Amino acid sequence: MQISLVSSPDVKAGAVTGRPTLQDVARKAGVSVVTVSRVINNSPLVRIPLAERVKAVIKEIAYVPPAAEKRIKKRRVSVTWRAHQKIGLILAGVFDFKWIGNYAPIYSYAIQGVQDALHRAHFGFVIHQVPKIEELGTLPRHLRVDGLILLSRSYEKQWPMELTRYPVVKVMGSYFDKPCDHVSYDNAAVGRVAAGHFIAKGILDVAVIGSNGHRDVLKERADSFTQHMKNSGGTVLELQSMEILHYGEDIHEMNEPVVRSFIDHLAAHSPRPKGLFLTLDMMAPLVYRLLREKGLEPGRDIEIVSCNNERPFLAGLNPRPATVDIQAERVGDRAVQQLFWRMQNKNDPHIKILVEPSLVL
């Protein structure tokens, strides 16, 4: 609902004469008419304490927006200016809570960021899981939501027409080419941050364990890491395989024979690397065990940096490795802010927003 703004003669501050107007609300609340309009339209751009003050004035002087007044006359129902004030979070493919909890807690952090941001804005949200995004159908209409946040794999083959009816923001993931906004972490910067840690400590003979798949998140991290190390005069032992992970609907774990072969290679290499970058935190428990089987003590014989800051994988490790935090909660929060912006700017070009990672020691 949009409200037209018109000028009116000046009256004393706080005075209401005759039928209350939008300008009366603005003067009594000490804000602009634009702010009042935003409050009536439930815009997330207005801070909650200020919105509550404006609503209190609206109630006090019994102001009724024109559109709401027409609904009262026509339908004889109570006044409501709110939209649904509800966002749909769609989990597509393997991304159900069981899979996330068992194999990829990083996505639960992003969901927490979404929930916290919506709570601050007094928005509700509903979560729904679908096997494939193309099976979404008319679900958003049945959910009665104002917009959608999508958590799915990056390689969706089809984009349902139903999604074109709503503001949509894809959250997390790397490559994505569908017609919606995308908020994620800066995956290429992960390698730079990890390399910066080794360079700062004077460790220039290093290794990296990752994947070499096409458009692979782990490959991008490893390639960025290798580039930054070599640019600083370092040497990098690249240990990469497309088979490093067992991945599917009921599994997401390290391929131990592949990782074991990498550690064997690292231990036998001359000169032996003094630093090791693991492109996933979930590698760390297995790598610690395999290194110790070779008589190499993490933190003493080899400095380790991992990635994601997934606490369940790191909690039992001693010493705990440094890790690159991809800021998943901030990504979820930023996705909500972008969705709110998209709700107000539906015709602007789609954009991708990347959140900068940081090192946790």
Structural overview:
The protein is an alpha/beta fold. It has three domains: 1-82, 434 Repressor (Amino-terminal Domain) (Orthogonal Bundle); 86-186 and 329-350, Response regulator (Rossmann fold, 3-Layer(aba) Sandwich); 187-325, Rossmann fold (3-Layer(aba) Sandwich), CATH 3.40.50. It has helices spanning 22-29, 33-40, 48-61, 66-75, 97-103, 106-120, 139-143, 187-200, 217-231, 256-268, 284-293, 311-314, 328-344; strands spanning 86-92, 124-130, 147-151, 168-171, 181-185, 205-210, 235-240, 245-248, 251-254, 275-278, 303-308, 322-325, 352-355, 358-360. The strands form three sheets. A six-stranded parallel sheet has the order 2-1-3-4-5-13, with helices on one face. Helix 9 (217-231) links the parallel strand 6 (205-210) and strand 7. The protein starts with 21 loop residues before the first helix and ends with a strand. The model is unreliable at 1-17 and 68-82 (pLDDT under 50).
Strand order of the largest sheet: 2-1-3-4-5-13
Strand content: 15-25%
The CATH class assignment of the largest domain is: Alpha Beta
SSE-based structural type: alpha/beta
